[in-house]
Design brief:
The complex is a heterodimer of chains A (141) and B (406). Chain A has 141 residues and is mainly alpha-helical. Chain A contains 6 helices and 2 strands, in the order H-H-E-E-H-H-H-H. In chain A, strand 1 and strand 2 form a beta hairpin. With 406 residues, chain B is α/β, with parallel strands linked by helices. Chain B has 2 domains: 136 residues, Alpha-Beta Complex (Aspartate Aminotransferase, domain 1); 254 residues, Aspartate Aminotransferase, domain 2, CATH 3.40.640.10. In chain B, 40% of the residues lie in helices and 17% in strands. In chain B, helix 7 links the parallel strand 7 and strand 8. The chains are: A mainly alpha (141), B alpha/beta (406).
């Protein structure tokens, strides 16, 4: 599945919920499926800055595809990270670099994208793209 | 004018809106307050009919603007019972006031001197002093707190030694809600020859401020925390101090004679008001303080106390609830955390229910770190907050906790 197809699937899933409570309950559920970061990477080096909660993110290249793992101590944050990883993990670095975050808007998580100081989501997206760039450069060498 | 919550709320149209299809419950007043139409009208009227630059003009409008601006200064002086208007410096806010003082005190602080701040300080009353100490090779010492979030007065007394050049303390904590016994503390400090700066950002809105009775050396506050616009604040300083301290910013207004070689400075308060002032802000501040005085500060504080009590009692019914800050004297600020639940999660869900609270470290990272928690959820009340809102807020917290406990 391409990123685009995955994003469409996610938008589809969320569109089933009209009520904010159901949407957030689903988001929290998704968080439980988050591919967990290895304990050994839960250090300051892998901490995403700009979050009110703590978020750790790790990326590695496996067969030319970028595999993302993460964790957070806030369950909604975990859910949001899970959504992002569901859409973008296991894809080629070049595809991740080109991916946009419009789909987060479409599932109604726009308020989490505002450039406030407490916004880790933007930092996380930036970090994922930095990883993708680094892996892409490495691949091209 | 008696305290009528409905007529008061009518003065604040911004409160009458829906957020995520729910009625807005604005409980983030410690971050900033809403402005009554009277304040908004005053600012509007100024720009519609009165605007002109102040202090330098010979023409009618500039004289009117100058008079209005200086009258606002007098009003602020009267409100906080300062001895004279010259002791009121208009700034951009509490943070600028404290930075101004920290720069002016540079020659006053020498190597091995000490500056005391408390463990509950907001970054704005911590970082300037920390940096000043680093610059002057002085030592920053932290006055510890008791378990309940009140200041450890015994320890403070021991810390007041001849090396201490300043005690910088918050009047009311924006995290814990602790009301410090400032009259007692100023006396304690003065007995040991230590001057005191009080950070009154919360204090100005939730207690009677009488700088003469307190005998405090400096008092700083922001307009936007007391129903006045953003971009205006005050540094009160006793004249004997302000006269001998050097200026902070240089340029227009604060000068007397200027040549290319040298400059002499203006007298107080203009010495500390470089550049064109925020005239409309000052007028807005005056109007806000007058608005409060008309309603009656005692009435307002009584009302806020009821809100705080009701909210605290009701929240405490929730399993796993931890109220952060349990000093005997508290004002209008209620921080809490629920076991096993991250404050960010709680705040996000509350927002979905139209409840505006703040989560995180509230610009007091050292305090939050010391408490060993990731942050708090903070509800802070204003004069227009209602008991019904408190009930809605508590129900929302219960609902959110249920969702997050899954």
């Amino acid at each position: 599945m391409t990123i685009s197809e995955k994003e469409q699937a996610i938008i589809g899933e969320f569109s089933l919920f009209e009520d904010w409570m159901d949407k957030y309950t689903y988001l929290i559920e998704l968080g439980k499926d988050l591919p967990l970061i290895d304990e050994k990477y839960k250090t300051n080096q892998y901490l995403i800055s700009g979050c009110q909660s703590r978020v750790w993110l790790h990326a590695e290249l496996v067969d030319g595809k970028m595999v993302l793992t993460a964790d957070s101590d806030a369950v909604i944050t975990k859910g949001i990270v899970s959504v992002l990883i569901k859409a973008w993990s296991g894809q080629k670095p070049a595809d991740i670099l080109n991916a946009s975050t419009d789909f987060l808007d479409k599932i109604g998580l726009a308020e989490h994208l505002s450039p406030t100081r407490a916004n880790g989501l933007l930092s996380m997206i930036k970090q994922i793209k930095l990883y993708a760039k680094a892996f892409q450069i490495k691949q091209d060498q | 004018m008696a305290f009528n919550i409905n007529t008061i709320r009518d003065d604040f149209p911004v409160l009458n809106q829906q957020v995520n299809n729910q009625s807005l419950v604005y409980f983030d007043n410690a971050a900033t307050t809403q402005k009554p139409v009277q304040v908004i009208q005053r600012i509007s009227d100024y720009y519609l009919h009165e605007n002109s630059n102040v202090h330098r003009g010979v023409h009618h409008l500039s004289q009117m603007a100058t008079e209005a601006y200086e009258k606002a200064r007098q009003s602020v002086a009267a409100f906080i019972h300062a001895a004279e208007p010259d002791e009121i410096i208009f700034t951009r806010g509490t943070t600028e006031s404290i930075n101004l003082l920290s720069r002016a005190l540079v020659p006053w602080i020498e190597s091995n001197d000490e500056i005391l701040v408390s463990a509950m300080e907001h970054h704005s009353n911590l970082v300037p002093w920390q940096q000043l100490c680093a610059e002057r090779h002085a030592r920053l010492k932290i006055v510890p707190l008791n378990e309940d979030g009140s200041l450890d007065l015994n320890f403070l007394e021991k810390m007041l030694n001849p090396q201490v050049k300043l005690l910088a303390l918050t009047h009311i904590s924006n995290v814990l809600g602790t009301v410090n016994p400032v009259a007692e503390i100023v006396k304690l400090a003065h007995d040991k020859g230590v001057p005191v700066l009080l950070d009154g950002a919360q204090g100005i809105a939730h207690s009677h401020v009488d700088v003469s009775a307190l005998n405090v050396d400096f008092y700083a506050f922001s307009g936007h925390k007391v129903y006045a616009p953003m971009g205006i604040g005050v540094l009160y300083g006793r004249k004997t101090w302000l006269k001998r301290l050097p200026p902070y910013q240089f340029g227009g207004e604060m000068i007397d004679q200027v040549t290319f070689e040298k400059t002499t400075f203006n007298q107080l308060p203009y010495k500390y008001e470089a550049g064109t002032p925020n005239v409309s802000g000052a007028l807005g501040l005056e109007t806000a303080l007058q608005y409060l005085s008309r309603i009656g500060l005692d009435e307002i504080f009584k009302h806020e106390d009821k809100l705080l009590q009701s909210a605290t009692e009701k929240l405490e019914q929730i399993d796993g609830m931890r109220i952060i800050g349990r000093a005997k004297q508290k004002a209008a600020v209620l921080s809490f955390i629920v076991n096993g639940i991250h404050p960010y999660d709680l705040g996000t869900l509350l927002d979905q229910m139209g409840i505006a609270v703040r989560t995180g470290h509230h610009c007091a990272q050292p305090l939050i770190d010391q408490l060993g928690i990731p942050g708090t959820v903070r509800a802070s009340f204003g004069l227009y907050s209602t008991l019904q809102e408190v009930d809605a807020f508590v129900e929302a917290v219960k609902k959110a906790v249920k969702m997050l406990r899954g």
